[in-house]
Design brief:
about 350 residues; mainly alpha; 14 helices; about 0% strand; NACHT_N; NWD NACHT-NTPase N-terminal domain-containing protein
Amino acid sequence: MKTASHPPAPHNATSKVKRLVGKICRHSHPSPPESTSSSPSSSAKTSRESSACPRPLIGKNSQRQSRRGSASEEDDRVHDLELWNAAYDLLKRDNTSSGLVLAYENIISHALPDSLRPGYNGSPNGLSSESERRTELMMMIAKSGLSREVKEASQTDSGDDGAARDNLIQIRSMIASLLDDKPSAGIAWAGFCSLTPLLLDPLLRHDDISQGFVHITDNIPHYLTLHRALRPTSWTSQPEFQRLQPHVRQTLLDLYRRILEYEMNIVCAAASAWNMAARNVVDWHGWKAMADAVREKDDELMGYVEKNGTDEAMALMEVQRKLAPEGGGRGKLTDDTSPQDAPQTRE
């Protein structure tokens, strides 16, 4: 991977993304119509989210207006969205991962109406590479996934199947709480919204997959705060910020790319029972290495923050951070998304 810093987005591109962010934060997107899927899970009934997985009323203008915040906060959302799109583009343009991205997009696009799916009526195979359009489609995919019911595990469920259900309920609740306020969450987590207990359960029976999956999904709120490391006001020394900013940006892009790559592998592995193309692009022997790469990049970024960040910035980025348990272990997803939570004590 190239380590050179990337130039900032052109002004007209940034303006487009700003308009999109404002649109997402101000107006309700209509729910996409139900569509059929070739997945074995497509027979599941669609309904509102399980009561065990409370879902905010996505699309209520009064809620959105109260959460829009200042112009600087909207600029912050724009910057975050640009970073996630840039990381996505790095994966899609890389010959070693482009096949994974294509398979992933074809799987999650089953949540879209037929006319918006890749390959429909001569359209390209794969979702749009234009950032604004991709963001809109990913938001639709994420909301469609969140609209499907995932019931609580019953007493008759097997232990592992129950773990898959409980994890998905908490993941969905976490993503739903972030989606409207952070448009980047659609790019970052649409794939996890497409998972079902039936398809996820066999994967979580393997410790190397389970450990990485729980760690990464448990840190979703944490990852969505990390773009603040590129704010000048997050640094105690402006000369140090100017000197290290290109390195911090590259580290952040590398982290986002690693997260997306792991998510795409999980989604394709879950779909491999019915999708041969997905089976062929999964790094079946690389689960631990992929999860370790995410942790290492997160540690590298937080190292910059701990050494150079203001107390406020460090507290904000640490408050949702969950470190891997001592000695590995499968761990369990925790639902800990309240901004009032105290910062985690680092070991």
